[in-house]
Amino acid sequence: MGIWHLHEEAQLIKGCINGSRKAQEDVFNATYRRLLGVCARYAKDDDDAKDILQNGFIKVFKSIENYKGDGSFEGWIKRIVINTAIDSYRRKKVKPVVVDSELTDRVGTNMADEVEDDSIYQKIPIKVVLDSVQKLSPAYRTVFNLYVLEGYNHNEIAEMLEIGVGTSKSNLSKARLNLRKMLKPLVDKISQE
Amino acid sequence: MNFDEIIKEKLESYQAPANVNAWKEFESNLSHSEQTTPFAVPLISGIAATIVMTVLFTTLPDIKSDSIESSRIEENDIALVDTAIKVGASNEIGESPEHVAQEAHTIPLVILENKTVSEIGETAVNQATIVSHESEIESQITNASNEEENKKSDAARHENINFTASGIQCPNSNITFTAKLDKAASVIWVFDGLEVKNGIQVKHYFKDAGAYTARMIVKFQDGYEQSITQSIEVYDTPSASFEMNTVSDESCFDQIIELKGTPNSNTYKWVIDGDTAGKGVEFSKAVSKDFHTVGMHTINEWGCTSYEDKSLRVESGLRLDIPTAFSPTRQDGLNDTWKVEGLNNVATFHIEIKRLSTNQIVFESNESAEWDGSIHGYADRIEAGEIFTYQIIATDNCGRTKQFSKTIHYL
Questions:
Q1: CB B307 to CB A169 under 8 A?
Q2: Nearest-by-Cβ selection for A37 from B1, B16, B287
Q3: Which of B3, B11, B100 minimises the CB distance to A41?
Q4: Fold type of domain B325-410
Q5: Looking at domain A6-92, does it have CATH number 3.40.640.10?
Q6: ipTM value of the model?
Q7: Given an 8 Å threshold on Cβ–Cβ distance, is B12 in contact with A114?
Q8: Residue B407, SS3?
Q9: Residue B63 burial by CB count (10 A; 0-12/13-18/19+): exposed, middle or buried?
Q10: Using one digit for the tens of pLDDT, what is the confidence trace for B90-118?
Q11: What is the pLDDT of residues B334-386, one digit of tens each?
Q12: Dist. CA A53–CA A61, nearest whole Å
């Protein structure tokens, strides 16, 4: 079930279509924290995330009449917000990154205490993971989000971001590697404890 | 759960901190947006239309005909060809989205047309019509083509114009087009009849493989125009797929990964964890116990590249089992000694154990992998609860040396 009961959801949608501020406020407040969390992983910082969310909600309220009910209302809002994030990336994009200079200093391969398996990443706080994702370059971050979080395949991502399929794959790999690199000090620390 | 699933689970569960002022902040922007929208849309449209018209007017005069007022092209717009090339005048619009590491080369072109202005007339109108559907511009172009007098006088003239192309003939690769002119002139380019750029030297890329046309329209200072059209071939990217196997060897820490690309006439470049590792359709390399990304660039005879990569977790073939605690004083037959399993499979090793509190070496050996808890034979000086650190440096039978260190708890 979504965050609203069906009857309540229908009333909210109707209110939003009629321009009711109260209905808009209820929708905004009910989804704000979760959607700002979504925007945060597409953004470089909190301000950037708020900008995306704000533009996303403006689109939501302006196009709410287009919601056909084929899927959850919250999912529809989330889709618009994510599309807003992608649009924001496209606008800011100067040229896509293929070759990554950040990776010249890679994760070491001769470490005394080696990570046994990925389960150790479960011990890393959410905020640390989010901060690391935000530190990725926009190209890597966007591809990582679309592939890992949203479940798109590389062909779909390539079309959405207007990049090559190879670029999408490459950016995903580099995103994973960079994330591991950023999280490694904490992983090492946790494994020592 | 793998890495992706763990990160996904964490990020999906994340909620931003509550903000009691969030709605108020948003509402003020929403109100502003709603107030400006009815006026902003036509205003922005108007500005956009003005910009488009301005760009097209500054771009298209050369396409039309020299019978259009020559004053439309300002003196400053006409650059000396040599100077323009020397300073690298280029149009960066349409920067290629793919930056591949192939070496640029001069691309063979085939001249399809070389026309004077009177010949340009009608076709230029057609080209321009494709470029823009703005009826006003079409109207002006059409009017311009009616200037028969100028066309006739120019028809007899023929300047020596040409252009070269250099780059990689692959989809999404930038190709640099350079005008070769004897006189100062302004230059407009029409690629595949659709995209217009201007400048002595411009860059352009084609998204897909195929045969395309590049047309250069030159307008000299005296208003005379001439165009040349050449064909250019863009080739397909190669397919990129490969197989990957890991060869296990219990006497070595590292494992051999064997890579095999799809056999054809392409060149293969293997990339492991972002670094170039080697070339060849088949390639093998020893890699350490870790998470790796193995990628393959395939380069065909035209220099077009494709990339494919796979993730790989390599487990160590030679495994050491190193205890983190032992209890020698209990003498219960369980963990009475600190013993490292697996060191009998390495070529050489050195163990050093220190007391954590004092950094004093309590055990050191190149032969024994077992410590009974005594300090150089004096067992009674050790107390339960003490913590030690070990460092093991081991060289396997493949020549790889690894270092291990951690703490030992004396229970």
A1: yes
A2: B16
A3: B11
A4: Immunoglobulin-like (2.60.40)
A5: no
A6: 0.85
A7: no
A8: strand
A9: buried
A10: 333 333 333 334 556 777 777 766 766 54
A11: 888 999 998 888 899 999 999 888 888 889 999 999 998 888 766 666 777 88
A12: 12
